[in-house]
Amino acid sequence: MERGLTLHVEVFPDPSGVVRALANRIVKAAEEAVARSGRFALAISGGATPEPLFDLLGDSYYPKLPWTKTDLFWVDERAVAPDDPRSNFGAARRRMAPVFQADAARIHRIRGEADLPEHAADEYERELHRFFGKAPPGESKTFDLLLLGIGPDGHTASLFPGSPALEERTRWVRAVPAASRDPRVARITLTLPAIDAAREVAFLVTGADKSRVVRRILFEHGPDPAPWPAARVRPQGPLRWYLDRAAAGEPPR
């Protein structure tokens, strides 16, 4: 990892410990954000890995968070309707139902059902600029906390190895073509400029299928992170990795 990056890595025996630790960090980040600005801007990721976290946030942790002061965003979305089983928005809504029954104006979803993914990307970028304002690259501030996952190929959000979207330097949202992995649909994703403008970023990673890429990024990194999109995330504030033992693999020497 690059010098100057504030990196925290925590490893837990099992996925439940990872999820609870991250939920506690979300509560703390929300308290800090509300004290600082009166609101908490949280961006969540999709896929199967964060679903237990969503279950927790929609159940026992629901009373612990200031949902009436929380604005919820998405890191990426599939180009599908919100009621499609592949929708990241839909998965979160099913598992955090009480959150979605509160203030609809604080739910900022990506319209995956738009006629073209490019139109959805343009619309979401405009919404982000309305909410956060627009500053020159490197001076913007976006989310108080942004949650990410990682695939076995090192992708994060919908930023895949070799994707032109990885080289974006000004836009906050990009459409990307259908991925070579399931589900094979076009996507809309935040770019590195939007991700890196977050005050804090947290990776949630579980499972042995992630251990190879996690080890390469965290413990055996070289001077060129290009093959691993997740290695290119360098937020303004802390970067936290929450891992279970399977994802961490063998402890580094």
Key attributes of the depicted protein:
8 helices, Rossmann fold, 7-stranded parallel sheet, 3-stranded antiparallel sheet, globular, 253 residues, 17% strand, alpha/beta
Please provide a written account of the structure.
There is one protein chain. This protein has eight helices and ten strands. By secondary structure, it is α/β, with parallel strands linked by helices. It has one domain (7-149, 161-188, 196-247): Rossmann fold (3-Layer(aba) Sandwich), CATH 3.40.50. Strand 2, helix 2 and strand 3 form a beta-alpha-beta unit. Helix 1 packs across helix 2 (51-57). The longest helix has 23 residues, at 15-37. The two termini are 17 Å apart.
Low-pLDDT stretches: none
CATH architecture: 3-Layer(aba) Sandwich
Distance N terminus to C terminus? 17 Å
Helix-strand pattern: EHEHEEHHEHEEEHEHEH
The average pLDDT score comes to 91
- Describe the global form: globular
Helix amount, in percent?
25-40%
Computed structural class: alpha/beta
At the first level of CATH, what is the class?
Alpha Beta
Strand order of the largest sheet: 1-10-9-6-2-3-5
List the domain count as a whole number.
1
- CATH fold field value: Rossmann fold
**Sheet having the most strands:** 7 strands, parallel
Query: What's the number of extended β-strand segments?
Result: 10
Structure summary:
30% of the residues lie in helices and 17% in strands. It has eight helices and ten strands.
Task: Outline the secondary-structure elements.
Elements: E1 7-12, H1 15-37, E2 40-44, H2 51-57, E3 70-74, E4 76-78, H3 88-95, H4 97-100, E5 107-108, H5 117-132, E6 145-148, E7 173-176, E8 187-190, H6 192-196, E9 201-205, H7 211-218, E10 239-244, H8 245-248
Parallel strand pairs: 1-10, 2-3, 2-6, 3-5, 6-9, 9-10
Antiparallel strand pairs: 4-8, 7-8
Helix pairs in contact: 1-2
